[in-house]
Specification:
The chain is mainly alpha-helical. The chain is built from 8 helices and no strands.
């Protein structure tokens, strides 16, 4: 689970030592509170049946242990959704930057400098990418690690295109626009499915 917590902290954008410390302090505090409640239950819960004490103790410990992970999963899931919403604009900006003659490294540098206002979540991630590239990291390895760590399928597909072009060369504009078309088509289908679902529910409500 420590590996899952580290991955979720990364996805939530809580990279700093202070943010990590606050999360682990929150977890430890809840466990300590659960422990105090359990001790109080056994010392002063004379009216509670013996078997129920075990049940309540287990429930308190489980909630104290699980709530921090639920909070972290919620924060990570929300940020992944925000990053997914930024992917189409990210593709458009990449196409413009590549058409202007920039390399992949230069494109990420431009996105970090100029794109933080329009890509707040992805821009933060690209800062880390740029630091790794400036430290001599291989572009393909860095992009693969980013896609795997963030677990945003739409973004991972775009990063896969960049890796392939960086490795084998070739035209970048068409693969990016093709990925954008697939993404928009899938989102259109998802939107129609949601509309159909809402329409079905509204029909049931009107009939009732």
């Amino acid at each position: 689970e420590s590996g899952e917590a580290a991955r979720l902290l990364l996805q939530a954008g809580w990279r700093g030592a202070q943010a990590r410390l606050m999360f682990y302090a929150f977890r430890a505090g809840l466990l300590a509170l659960a422990g105090l409640l359990i001790v109080g239950l056994w010392l002063f819960g004379d009216s509670v049946k013996f078997g129920m004490k075990f049940l309540y103790s287990f429930a308190l410990f489980a909630f104290g242990y699980l709530i921090p992970m639920w909070v972290l999963r919620g924060a990570a899931g929300g940020r992944r959704a925000r990053m997914a919403r930024e992917v189409p604009l990210f593709i458009h900006l990449l196409v413009l930057l590549f058409e202007a003659g920039l390399s992949t490294r230069q494109a990420f540098a431009s996105l970090v400098r100029e794109g933080r206002g329009v890509l707040p979540e992805l821009g933060e991630e690209f800062e880390g990418v740029l630091r790794q590239l400036e430290a001599g990291g291989d572009i393909a390895d860095v992009l693969k690690g980013l896609g795997t760590a963030l677990d945003v399928p739409d973004l991972e597909g775009v990063l896969g295109v960049l890796r392939q072009v960086d490795k084998y060369g070739g035209e970048i504009r068409e693969p990016l626009l093709e990925a954008l078309g697939v993404l928009e088509e899938r989102r259109g289908l998802d939107l129609r499915e949601k509309v159909n679902l809402v329409s079905g529910r509204m029909t049931v409500v009107m009939v009732l």
